[in-house]
Amino acid sequence: MPILVKDFTWSQTTNAINIRIPLDPVYREAVDIFTTDKYIKAHFRPYLFEIFLLYEVNTEKSKCTLQDDLMVFDLIKKEQVDWEVLEKILTKDEKAKLRAEMLAECQEKAKKESEERAIRKSQLDRFTVQQAMEIDTKQHTLMDSRRDDERNKAMNELEKWRSKTTTETYNDFQSMDAITDSNSTSRVKIVELPDDEPEIKAKITERKTISKTPVKTPVRSEYVEKKKQEIGNRVLPNLRRSGLVEIKHTPRSFPTPSRESTAHEEEAWLRNITHARRATGFVSEDLRPEEQDPQWCKEKGDEFFRNGNFLGAISAYTHGITLSDKLPSLYSNRAATHFALGNFNKCVTDCSTALDLMKPACEGNRRSRAKCIARRAAGLARIGLLNKAIDEMKAAAKLLPDDENIKKDIYDMERAWEQNPDSE
């Protein structure tokens, strides 16, 4: 139960209320504050400050300040009136009712604010997308206009060049027609152009050259001819004969090759490890072929456990798990052995694995599941997680309602939780 804080002081002005609460520096970093217009709550374990205000205050303008050893509330009044007392006089039931109403009101307000934030975010996202689309459209329009301008400019220049070329060609043909007409009138003499008209001769020669189709002549390369001759004279080697390559590997206990390892030291290490495993009461190399059975490993581990050889029991259960990791009894029995040795974290892990393998839950495995849950609860209690341990033990009690040991464990855990409520 929390300790209520009563040694606080308060003062008031026309517009504000000042509340000063002593604060333990040890719990200064873990203060949980909840405020409304009529209610203030500050929880710093194991202390609790709670007050139902006489009149309403403006929580948006009010503030709370944490000093080294003091917590100060500066509350702004909604109405400028003098307060006779700071807190309303209410019964326990009235306080509980007001707490429920204020909690529901705050939850509804928080829900509305969350919805409004989501709506504003959605509107902002849509606006951002629209702006991005508008910018993209402007950029595309600008690029299209520039492309059209360049295309029109190129087409205009091409049209000017074509018009100029057509005019010059037409003039050349007119000159040639005039020469042809003068030759055809005589019908007998061939008139040669005088030497003082070289420009006309050049134009006629150019027209004849253009009218003829150019003949493609192949280009010969000395380098290419040389390479062709070398390829033609090349003598290919004979095909390789097929054969079989045999590889023999030396058996090794370690992955390093012989030239890089010390065989004597490795053999000594293996002997020491084998001796240590035999000292625990179990080693897989000593088993006969018919003993390589997970059920046999479980029975062997149970025998070691009854004799008090817990290390040997863990070795047997672990070897059985390597042979078959689907047998839940190996995990649950190894969890019991870990619990006996004080390995509580490993005990909790093995119990969880065993419960995962006991699916689906049915009447056939009800007792096994209950024992496994109870053992996991005991492990959680030993590592300090009393709250979770109590929940686990209650779950086991539902499966075995007539088990008196489980009921006694639940009672002891709840008493321990009441004495030390800070445990998780």
Any overview of this molecule?
By secondary structure, this protein is an alpha+beta fold. Helices cover 57% and strands 11% of the residues. The protein has helices at 92-186, 198-211, 222-233, 263-279, 294-306, 310-323, 328-341, 344-357, 366-382, 386-399, 404-419, and strands at residues 3-4, 9-12, 16-22, 32-35, 39-44, 47-52, 57-66, 70-77. The strands form two sheets. Strands 1-6-5-4 form a four-stranded mixed sheet, covered by helices on one side. The longest helix is centred in the first third of the chain and has 95 residues, at 92-186. The two termini are 15 Å apart. Residues 183-188 have low confidence and may be disordered.
Question: What keywords describe this structure?
Answer:
single chain; 424 residues; alpha+beta; 4-stranded mixed β-sheet; 4-stranded antiparallel β-sheet; 57% helix; 11% strand
Structure described in brief:
The chain is of the alpha+beta class and 424 residues long. The protein has eleven helices and eight strands.
Order of helices and strands: EEEEEEEEHHHHHHHHHHH
Distance between the termini: 15 Å
In what range is the share of β-strand residues?
Answer: 5-15%
The helix fraction, in percent, is 55-70%
Report the major sheet: 4 strands, mixed
Overall strand count: 8
Overall average pLDDT: 79
Number of helices: 11
| Uncertain ranges | 183-188
Class of secondary structure makeup: alpha+beta
**Strand arrangement across the biggest beta sheet:** 1-6-5-4
